[in-house]
Amino acid sequence: MTGSELKWRIAGGSGDGIDSTSQNFAKALMRAGLDVFTHRHYPSRIRGGHTYVEVRAQPDDVRSRGDGFDFLLSLGDSFARNPDDEAYYGEEELKPLYEHFDDLNEGGVIVYDSGLIDDEAVEEINLYERAEENNWHVYPVDLRGLAREHGREVMRNTAGVGVSAALLGVDTSYFEELMQEVMGGDIAEANIETLNAAYEQAAEFDHTHDLEVPKGDHDSEQALVTGSDGIAYAALDSGCRFISGYPMTPWTDVFTIMSQNLPHFGGIAEQVEDEIAAASLAIGASHTGVKAMSGSSGGGFALMSEPLGLAEMTETPVVLIEAMRAGPSTGMPTKPEQADLEHVLYTSQGDSCRVVFAPGNPQEAYEQTRKAFEYAYDYHIPAIVLYDQKLGGEMRSVPAEFFDREPDSDPGAVLTEDELSEAAHDAAGKFKRYSHDGEDGVVPRSVPGQEGGRFLATGNESQEVGHISEDPDNRKHQMDRRMEKLTSIREDLNAGDDSNQAFHGPADADYGILVWGSQQDTVFEAVDRLNARGSSVKALGVSDMMPYPESEVTAFLESVEECLVVEMNATAQFRGLTQKELGRFGPKMTSLLKYDGEPFEPSEIVEGFEATVEETDLPGGNMELRPAAGD
Amino acid sequence: MTAFSAIHEEHESDKEDFTPGVEPQPTWCPGCGDFAVLKALKGAMPELGRSPEEVMLVTGIGCSGKLSSYFESYGYHSIHGRALPIARASKLANPGLEVVAAGGDGDGYGIGANHFMHTARENHDMTYIVFNNEIFGLTKGQTSPTSPKGHKSKTQPSGSAKDPVRPLTLSLASGASYIARTAATNPRQAQQIIAEAIEHDGFAHIDFLTQCPTWNKDAKEYVPYTDVQEEYDFDKTDRREAADMMYEAETKLYEGEVLTGRFFREENRPSYGQEKRSTGEMPEDPLAERYYDDDDGFERVADHLIERHK
Ligand SMILES: Cc1ncc(C[n+]2csc(CCOP(=O)(O)OP(=O)(O)O)c2C)c(N)n1
Ligand code: SF4
Ligand SMILES: [Mg+2]
Q1: Pyruvate:ferredoxin oxidoreductase core domain: which residues (chain A) (predicted)?
Q2: How far apart are alpha carbons A470 and A491 in whole angstroms?
Q3: Which CATH class, in words, describes the domain spanning A6-203?
Q4: I need a surface site. Which of A6, A533, A588, B44 has the fewest CB within 10 A?
Q5: Closest residue to A409, CB basis, from B20, B86, B291
Q6: ipTM of this model?
Q7: Ligand 1 mean position, distance from CA A99 (Å)
């Protein structure tokens, strides 16, 4: 484990500054030249819940959180103890220590705050016994004492970082620099003093472990971003200047980033009464000529169902974001799952006519959100970006130049007043906004306030200027014209040289793995391992959910003997979609499913693959293998 | 050069400009109160110098929702209960538009009541006309939120056990800054009130009593009516006095007496757009115009937001 990678985990109470500390830790390693990846675990509570964040660092491409971890910085839970009623909280404060034993790799390191967790407690949880069995190296440090002496008690986390740096051989200057940037003033001073005191103390320890931070070097400056950043930044660069929403985990991250930045970008953000209003406002703003978006997570997206259909029928462009979490109903609000695929594809009455992209990492989140805006506004169609709590919250280092893009203020297929004066109108001067003669299904629209552009938009079936019509021929015409957009969009997507589908592995491999959304890069890491140990396997990460990338998936499935389909839900929704769209390959596909709230680890994919292809038994755990119907 | 020349020009228009030239003819039943709303709105617009293409009329679903089909302007016939969120976003996107929302009592006080409350609270500079016929017209006569207690219908065969909604009081409590009630039987007052409501710089709510002779057989024709400005002595700018007057009007309606007129007006309250501009959360110029102005350089994420991630 020495040298090639580091998986560092910080655990504590939800109020112990775990998020900010881990973010700084990841940034420091990134600045030191490493690629980083973070995994955040948190309960759906503000305080008192126990939380952890993992930072994985490698000299090159980190694709997932990996398997297990190597270094535990346990702060204990300082908010667990109620001074008036100690008994009530029981051993809550110890959880950030012993709950991590199962995942800590052999030879790992444990640092815990002995100022909070005493010897008696350590005895109770058999720390040293476990350490001996697993060859762990344990360093008790009085982080609380250090923080009190050199800064303030809340700086226990900083003291922990100082100890980590000393034990792992990280240069503290990166941390000092960050503290100065983020905090400034006296607070930064106190933190830096605490950091260095802790570093010096730990440097004196007798180091029994052989774990150290790997060395790396970047070709260019890096930025540490989440999938939520990718989505929000793409929206801003797409010229989106209106968002309406209602908070719901995990969509709230995108909503917050947009709300904080839109005023500075000359736009408008609205927190409204519910998600029906949220979607309706975005539709109203977009109809009026502004590029607009809304979004939610499962339950809130369910409320958007009727406005979504209205946008399809009135051909109002709009971009909606759906951040999946484990369902049904309130489910597990802070846990990822991929079980809203069918919901997003088909919700709302009538035949669905929408674009759905499911990106696999922050860069794809950016690229595909930009495409969502392009298609929505060029084709007058709702476009949905579907992701989950995992992709939304995990941070990755990305070359900063990735974001060096031009903004797009083009409102899409809109006529100018001059063009309107030449366009088709009815005898009374109403603009034929829904003319039967749209090219690729699209009739360029007018915007309220333009001279010569008035028309009626309606959720009813309508004739060319928008008046309600139940004439069968008109109906057939309008339905076919609207549905034609999906065909045209598919052709556009196929013609582009930047497919949304990501391929990984040797092209001539015998076996395949199909995956979608946030599990994609974990699968890619597993594919590398499998090939390294002699298997012949490749993977296709699919992002286009509607219109479905028929030719790409067909070619992939035709080229393999057998295929594993990896997704985080119980009913194999993506495999079902693939069978429905392609009408064959059923017997070739076996699903590897997981819906316990924890994303796949690369080793689990490896095990799933072996169980399928080599017919070994699936080891214990919460995964399930399910052969396709008809197999 | 503006991209929206219908908005910035002075207009001379007349009623006919707001009447669709070829189709459709209104399909409301003979004697329906909805005709009166259409007529009053068509009368008020030229009085105020508005032209069809600077008006955005958003309607809900119901017999009332058909208003946008029979009125010539930019129209949006939306879904049941959701006219207000669409309309208010339209106003935010382009404050130059004259935004009017309309729908039924079921649409606005039932399925869309949450939006009514919040749109009023935000005090958007727009007009909201509720066709109050005390019944679900389009779906053939079911009890609505304003149907009187005891009202019998196919879905309330033993008579409604519910007290009706008090729409004026609800509006006042929610935060509307102009509140009036008028009736189809009083076309002169109706047109004046609609014109006033449009002129008002804030959320103006009109509860418009529209008889439904088809499904609400025992409905009054809303005659005789009394104008509260003539028969009652109260100060419509005083919240408490307005509240008392509303309570009286709402109660009397179910006793057969129709009290109409202006119930509340708050002059100096800034509209939502003004509030939002003063906190720096809304651009000074209409947002929609940015997209149609070639000189408007859009801000780049790379220039403003990436540094903090490094
Ligand atoms: C979500 C939804 N629920 C129900 C309906 C059916 N529906 C259409 S109009 C209406 C009620 C109409 O009553 P009101 O709003 O008072 O309008 P009116 O017809 O009386 O003008 C109902 C229940 C619908 N269109 N959409
Ligand atoms: S059903 Fe009633 S409300 Fe509807 S058009 Fe006929 S009279 Fe008017
Ligand atoms: Mg009604």
Answers
A1: 509-582
A2: 31
A3: alpha beta
A4: A533
A5: B291
A6: 0.98
A7: 55
